[in-house]
# Entry
Amino acid sequence: MKRITLVLLSLVLLSVLAGCTGGQFVASSGWSGVAIGSDLVYVGARSGRMLALNTSNGDQRASFPQAGQDPLSGLYGTPALTNGLLYVPGYDGRIYALDAANLSQKWRYPSDETKVKPVVGGVVVADGLVVYGGEDGYVRALQASNGGKVWEFKTGNKVWSTPTVAGGVVYIGSLDHKLYALDLRKGTSVWTKPFQADGAIVAMPLVLNGRVYIGSFDRRVYAVDAGTGQSVWSFQGTAWFWGGLVTDGKRLFAVDTRGVVRALDMATGQQVWQFDMQRQAFSSPILVGGNLVVTSDGGIIYVLTPDTGSQVSSYNVGDKGVQAPLTTDGQVVYVNGMDKRVWAIRMGGGQQDKVWQVSTEPGK
Amino acid sequence: MEIISLLWNNIILNPMENSLVLIYAYLGRNFGITILIFTVIVRLLTLPLTLRQIRSTQKMSEIQPKLQALQKRYGKDRTRLSQETMRLYKEAGVNPIGCLGPMVIQFPIWIGLYIAITALLPTSPERLAALSNHLYSWLPVAHQVVPLNSHFLWLDLALPDPLPILAVLVGVSMWAMQKMSTPPAANPQQASTNRMLLWMMPFMFAFFTISLPTGLPLYWTVSNVIGIVIQGSVTGWGELAFWKKKEQPIPAAVAAISESEAQSPSEEESVNEEQAGTSGDQRQDDRGSRRSRAQRARRRSRGSHNRGP
# Structure
């Protein structure tokens, strides 16, 4: 009897474990940032659709895929908007070029039904090329006009980072612990060897005044010479640096995954101040109206003074929090929340008012 | 609920995840090898319990005839039967739930290992992000090796096996374990149950292996192999020893007759002895040789059953 009981318990346990298993392309959620146009903003909803929302009131103008069609398996990377086209990186591994006015598809890459690895990072458009990295470890450049592949470069592991283009060079990190600098037109390495950190790199590099600034899972922020790939300084933190960095020209602002916001001297890497949000954070900070705006999965948006890190104000966007990067047009901050709502909050000029807030769930 | 989650994370999950990462970082940077080493460690830590379970099962099988006798005697008096049964267990030094121990301990290990594997080999960005909260901040190497390499032989340890190989390995190894550890049946009904369980558990585990990330079935396979070695070392290989010639079992009645003949000579033999005027020593020798034959018959009878745990 006892053995039969054990067998039945095992059966229940195995069923639970098997039921919890996800496959490689399980329907994921995503944390896409918002791309800002003139009268529309574009956000990847957690339901797997790219939405075009009216900037004045958040009304939905268009969606891709359209209602009635199957959604994408997830949208993690922030789309890029240029010359009337919206470039969307899909978790299904495809890059979609959509008409910015109505989100109708112009092209997609790959165009056939080849099974491809997901794309988690965002895309960047520069000099007629769409550049992105994929989980297959490749960094690729496509013709922005028709999606034709121009070049590809193989790294040692998945690429989740959004690339940065500066001075004709693509800077991008990989989970192989390296930061790469690639010629934008040819896709060949500019440095003698890539910069090697001690941990995975998923953050978007920041390039300014001949230096590349990047955070890593080894809990360090690095300043790297943009021309040679040599380390200039590094700062040792206490948790992973997942989100991107932002600067006011004097200080570098970084948020680690434990929710500690740090201001570092750009010249030396010395910490100037820190502010603890006491919740996990993956969202990149932004500067709005001279203030630093940060958020965490606690659902509070903090507005801090860049000089001292003192809290100016805060805004609650729901207890499910924010993992997507914050974006701003200089006056309004757009927030894609984990609770499937998108917020537009006016924060420029010392004000803090909700402009609108909409649900991205279908039918709501 | 939060307290349970906190206890689970701090006592089971976080130590398991960080241990796996530590093994990975210093021993090969291969997660398949990490699982092998982890399995060996777990088996070593649970060895005292396993040995106790094996011996308990062995004793249980030895007292089966006495248990049946009790059931026949007190079958209608459940209270008395229960009392006598417990007394018998106590006298024999048997723990009636001893066989459950290792299995019950394995359950949280399976659950923890499954969660740890999906956390350490994330298949989505959210899972990797969640991992940042579980790695100990005082273990710098843990942060440096993430994400872990999930490839081992033909397997991606984060995903189900595309081939049925691992499912077969799990099923076969589990069947062998079951075969060795199943005590002899006391009656036809129990024999039928044993036969069903012998095939049901391996089939069940093999079936679920098809849909689970291969890290967990790899653990099961290695754990089963180690279990087989332990069992074989303690109790012998039982019915798995296909290389040994099988002795035909002597029916109990025949064995009983042989034994009684060995203990008391037959009338005819007594008469013959008297007539022959055999000496006492010679009669003793004759009885001794009959006793030896009976003992050999009993040994052969026992050896045909799996006298393992």
Observations:
- Chain B has 14 helices and two strands.
